[in-house]
């Protein structure tokens, strides 16, 4: 079991049999897209948990003055801000968001294991597909997350 | 040792043995057929066997539907525990950091307003009980995560579903509180 440049591989399922170069190209593309989707999914979940907070944003007390704003951000004293936020956790909206988050988490776990198994085929092309997909996904989606968050906060 | 003939092969996988599995035709023969017959050392594609499925240790060989159900429940609980452990560690870390933050003191500002001067020490001391606890929990977490990975690597459909379902259940139960805590520190201003 070492890495090699084979043109035939069986990935995950019996029916995913690859013998031809064309099939290999297609498989690598598919694996690349899976890895890309995995990275996007991670960012999407972070963004979702951000919007979860946007729902509860009115519960936060605004800073008393401009001067103490930076200090209160650093401080974030738990006792004072914990109480008002917790009041809003029982809403139906946040419950739905939590269910969605759970479903996405399961999807992420399964997808992560699938990608691991793909890498474990010890096929160099598939491995490169996974790595390239991760790189592309991270490269594309992380700036997107930053933009989305700054858009929402402003 | 009343295993089937093929089981000794899984103990020391020769390169030749694995090569036959990669070959499409033999892999098809192994995966298809009766759903109960797991007559190979290591599956290379997803299957729904419940006979002769090795699980992590030598003594843990699943050989009946009942044993498979028991293994699935065990794996489910392990995966749920793993999620709980991850979130629990985060909560513990945050709590120990909150303690550090209490050191900050109010300082009168230039124009009468009160400023909070924070001496924020991020991270913990190396020789503290909290850090030792974190280290211990980290070891447990790493071991469990490797076990879960190895369980998924059996390519057994039931066990994989149990891992995924356990992760979902654990996340659903434990992250409810985490969602609350995260909000405060990150964005409330």
From TrEMBL, chain A:
Broad class of the protein's primary localization: membrane
The UniProt record lists the keyword Heme: no
Entry membrane topology: Multi-pass membrane protein
TM region positions: 20-41, 122-145
Molecular function as annotated in GO: copper ion transmembrane transporter activity
Keywords per UniProt: Copper, Copper transport, Ion transport, Membrane, Transmembrane, Transmembrane helix, Transport
Key word Transport present: yes
Any one of the GO CC terms: late endosome membrane
Descriptive protein name: Copper transport protein
Organism, scientific name: Oryzias latipes (Japanese rice fish)
Gene designation: slc31a2
TrEMBL record, chain B:
Record keyword Transferase present: no
GO biological processes: cellular response to estrogen stimulus; hypotonic salinity response; response to copper ion
MF-aspect GO terms: copper ion transmembrane transporter activity
Membrane topology: Multi-pass membrane protein
Domain of life the protein comes from: Eukaryota
Reactions performed catalytically: Ag(+)(out) = Ag(+)(in); Cu(+)(out) = Cu(+)(in)
GO terms for cellular component: apical plasma membrane; basolateral plasma membrane; early endosome membrane; late endosome membrane; recycling endosome membrane
Cellular location(s): Apical cell membrane; Basolateral cell membrane; Early endosome membrane; Late endosome membrane
Chain segments annotated as transmembrane: 68-85, 130-149, 155-174
Pfam families: Ctr
Keywords: Cell membrane, Copper, Copper transport, Disulfide bond, Endosome, Ion transport, Membrane, Oxidation, Phosphoprotein, Transmembrane, Transmembrane helix, Transport
Region Disordered, residue ranges: 1-38
Keyword Disulfide bond: yes
Purpose: Mobilizes copper(1+) out of the endosomal compartment, making copper(1+) available for export out of the cells.
Family: Belongs to the copper transporter (Ctr) (TC 1.A.56) family. SLC31A subfamily.
Identification of the protein by name: Copper transport protein
């Amino acid at each position: 079991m070492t890495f090699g440049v084979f043109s035939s591989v069986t990935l995950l399922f019996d029916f995913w049999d690859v013998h031809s170069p064309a099939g290999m190209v297609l498989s690598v593309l598919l694996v690349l897209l899976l890895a890309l989707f995995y990275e996007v999914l991670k960012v999407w979940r972070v963004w979702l948990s951000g919007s979860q907070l946007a729902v509860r944003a009115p519960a936060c007390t605004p800073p008393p003055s401009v001067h103490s704003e930076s200090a209160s951000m650093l401080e974030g004293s738990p006792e004072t801000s914990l109480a008002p936020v917790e009041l809003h956790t029982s809403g139906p909206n946040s419950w739905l968001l939590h269910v969605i988050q759970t479903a996405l988490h399961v999807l992420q776990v399964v997808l992560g294991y699938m990608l691991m198994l793909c890498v474990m085929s010890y096929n160099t092309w598939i491995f490169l597909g996974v790595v390239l997909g991760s790189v592309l996904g991270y490269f594309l989606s992380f700036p997107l997350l930053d933009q989305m968050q700054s858009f929402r906060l402003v | 040792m009343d295993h089937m003939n093929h089981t000794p092969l899984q103990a020391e996988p020769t390169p030749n043995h694995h090569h036959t599995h990669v070959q499409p035709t033999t892999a098809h023969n192994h995966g298809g057929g009766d759903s109960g017959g797991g007559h190979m050392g290591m599956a290379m594609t997803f299957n729904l066997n419940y006979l002769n499925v090795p699980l992590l240790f030598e003594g843990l060989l699943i050989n009946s539907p009942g044993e498979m159900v028991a293994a699935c429940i065990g794996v489910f609980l392990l995966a749920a525990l793993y999620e709980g452990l991850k979130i629990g560690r985060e909560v513990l870390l945050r709590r120990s950091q909150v303690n550090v933050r209490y050191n900050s003191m109010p300082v009168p500002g230039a124009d009468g307003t009160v400023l909070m001067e924070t001496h924020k020490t991020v991270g913990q001391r190396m020789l503290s009980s909290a850090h030792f606890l974190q280290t211990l929990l980290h070891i447990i977490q790493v071991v469990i995560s490797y076990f879960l990975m190895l369980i998924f690597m059996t390519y057994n459909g039931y066990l994989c579903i149990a891992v995924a379902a356990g992760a979902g259940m654990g996340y659903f139960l434990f992250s409810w509180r985490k969602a609350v805590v995260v909000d405060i520190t990150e964005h409330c201003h």
